[in-house]
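As the next step, I wrote out a protein sequence along with its fold in token form, included below for the reader:
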Amino acid sequence: MQLLFSCILRVGCIKTMGRKEKLIKRFTAIPADFTWSELCSLLGGLGYEMLAGSESRRKFKKGERIIVLHEPHPGSIVKKYVLRQVLAALKETGEIE
């Protein structure tokens, strides 16, 4: 009991979920309302740089790894199949469990 109490009192012992972790958790649930902005934030947080392609095509590059997507339009909601493809790619590289 004393060990638990001292752990609670120490700063940093109890972890809170940060913005990046919350976004990853939301993304892995493959929600129907995941936005392009959220996807850009997620990939940016994982170290990917967005490069403009032709028309609505966007490339996300990290080292030699490239993920090619089409930015949704006229809306901003990303299709579920696209989220599944991105999730599979990130799991393949071990960036998301």
